[in-house]
TrEMBL record:
UniProt entry tagged with the keyword Transferase: yes
UniProt cross-references to Pfam families, sorted A to Z: Methyltransf_16
Cellular component terms per the entry's GO annotation: cytoplasm; nucleus
PANTHER family from the UniProt entry: HEPATOCELLULAR CARCINOMA-ASSOCIATED ANTIGEN, HISTONE-ARGININE METHYLTRANSFERASE METTL23
Keywords, comma-separated and alphabetical: Methyltransferase, S-adenosyl-L-methionine, Transferase
GO molecular function: methyltransferase activity
Top-level taxonomic group: Eukaryota
Identification of the protein by name: Methyltransferase-like protein 23
Family the entry assigns: Belongs to the methyltransferase superfamily. METTL23 family.
Amino acid sequence: MNESSHALIEKSFTFQDCEDSQSLTVSIPEVLDPQYGMYVWPCAVVLSQYVWMAREELQNKTVLELGAGVSLPGVVAAKCGAHVILSDSAELPLCLRNCRRSCDVNNLPDMPVIGLTWGRVSPELLSLPAVDIVLGSDVFYEPEDFEDVLVTISFLVRRNPHAQFWTTYQERRRQRFGHRIFLQMLLDLDHTCNSSKLEKTGNSQALSTATPDLNS
Ligand SMILES: C[S@@+](CC[C@H](N)C(=O)[O-])C[C@H]1O[C@@H](n2cnc3c(N)ncnc32)[C@H](O)[C@@H]1O
């Protein structure tokens, strides 16, 4: 795909907290192209809202976003005080460029953007610093990729035993039971799961998982 043939539009997203009247607005450039990773998916809005509500927990934490695309959750986490690393497939340079563009538009020029292809134990994966939270919005959309996504998540949470994985997924008609398969796979990997349905989010769900604390 030649990106120059596609127009860019910038969308603003505002997150508010009714309890203390704080708010955050970020801008995300989207590419007018139907391919994955070119625009903000509904799951990204849900995960960003979850990130915003958990912002106190994120202060100075190291956060890695997988399959970030235009990177709304990662940008929100960075604005909330986390050290964020954005990633998308090493084979999709245009998606990596979208990550970079979202950093630049939000005045986050130093935010690292790396190519991480799910299921691959690459030098980029091996050289990551310690990670506290892994974000993945709508990364469970192609059942044939589920195993690769889980290989990467499993690698990360085993390497960082206190890390949590925060994800949102959409229940789609064509993969009605897909979410059950990946939930079962997470449980098979001995992760504990907390699932919370945010209000007014349609059929997107937020889920956080962590390896159990064997000392407690
Ligand atoms: C459905 S889009 C979601 C994008 C973004 N997280 C959001 O919610 O707006 C899936 C993302 O996964 C990325 N992706 C697809 N296959 C991948 C792979 N094998 N490894 C890493 N990322 C991949 C795509 O480039 C795309 O950005």
